Amino acid sequence: MFQSLDLTDPLIAHRYMVAMRVLHELPGFDWYDSQFLAKFEAARQMLQIVNPGSVASFTAAFDVLRTAPDFKVCHVRPLLGDAHFETLLAEVRALPPKALKSRENAQFGRDIFHDLPALGILQRELTPLVSELAGEEVEPCYNFLSLYHGGGRCPPHMDAPSAKWTLDLCLAQSCEWPIRFSDIVPWPTAGEAATVSDETDPALLGIVFEDHILHPNEALLFSGSSQWHYRDAIPDGGFCHLAFLHYHPAGCADLIDPARWATRFGLPELAVLDAVFDAMRPVAQ
Ligand SMILES: [Fe+2]
């Protein structure tokens, strides 16, 4: 189960035992895309036990991934010139059906397509605009096309900071379909927020949400890693086709990837934690 760990080494065996204990006691973090925050919280708890002098600097290094409390969602209308938008739509329509991944139908009622070349080009072109709206220099991360259909919904969740910034572009839709955002909130560490799951009723969160409505060729820039967000089911079994362009602060590639933390911070105990975490709580594919 943990082939990558030499458990005959007493130091590694000790770290393994601590990691198991920390992860066993880690609360919730059961919502879509919660794995980063779960690993961050587990890392802080493990360091508190095995290397307490490193906790403050490790925690502070992630401040760049947190979002300023006064950030407000930006609505860009229109995002593209008419010809540019039509070209993008034509590329999407030309996608062969078999290119679409249907694995998120049960959870979201959507087919997805990761890293469509046309979206990658658009994402790079829009980097200066996103930097301006975000108030910081950003770099593109992943992107995907999301084709919601009759069963489309989006449970309440908070994204990983690899998507600190999301530019959500509406391509086509059968009707207006609000997306709801909380204000900027601190990253949940424990308690109620840490036990949010994909089945949580948003009303139970005790959070005020604000509706935003997109139309084709309009986009929203939001900070999904510090804003709870969700959508109810699409009305009347309709459809909504969206493109998600994700960005993170420039120069933060080592921070957004927990597998790099051990090397980035010179803390080998975090490599043990990462291995144990991935074995105990694998991401569903
Ligand atoms: Fe999200």
Automatic annotation (TrEMBL):
Protein name: Uncharacterized protein
Organism: Novosphingobium barchaimii LL02
Top-level lineage group: Bacteria
